[in-house]
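Retro notes, item 3 of 5
We never archived the inputs for the S-adenosylmethionine complex last cycle. Fixing that now. Sequence and ligand:
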Amino acid sequence: MSFLGALFYDKLMKSTEEACLIDWRRELLKNVSGKVLEIGAGTGASLALYPKNSELEIFLSEPDANMRGQLEEKVSQKKLSNVVVLSSPGESIESKDDFFDVVFVSLVCCSVTDVQASLREIKRVLKPGGSFVFLEHVAAEAGSSRRKWQNRLNVFWRKIAGNCHLNRETEQHIRDAGFNIQNIRHESMRKAMSIVRPTIRGVATLN
Ligand SMILES: C[S@@+](CC[C@H](N)C(=O)[O-])C[C@H]1O[C@@H](n2cnc3c(N)ncnc32)[C@H](O)[C@@H]1O
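Structure as it came back at the time:
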């Protein structure tokens, strides 16, 4: 993410966050417990939405220095002693195997360099029986006019939006990686540009 992109990120996302994302994040995170890793935590949009549980250990990983600077500032302002900020990317997570109870991603699988490698890493660091919780914008239905626009604009969009791919088939990638999707919702992201509106959110496991 460019310096300016990171600087204005929260402002650009504000109306979408208020229209739907805050509610979706809160709902997805309400039952998390134990050791939780959030990959690509960005500026910390989900930080205030984790349950207030002193036994929760939260690891926020953000490889982009501009985004991470804001994340670290929020963590230190809130004086959160149960939160650790890491800098590793999804493709090489700084962790032992079988360590986390939950791995959470929001609007990240679209941006990682290698989505398959990132999903392999998530499998590696999740404890047996752990949960992979996701909230992602995804490719529109194949053949739809929205999908055609996503395909046309993808190269340009990646350049201006921190490598965000408009047309990633993330649900298929999650299934192909060997996860079992326990629940999934497909919903339009309100107050967002048409090309990023299709979303999926839910929980997947490895058993
Ligand atoms: C659209 S932002 C979403 C940020 C945050 N998760 C949220 O929901 O607001 C995408 C994030 O993915 C991060 N990202 C990009 N490539 C990544 C990678 N290879 N591994 C982990 N995170 C990555 C970016 O730095 C950025 O913070």
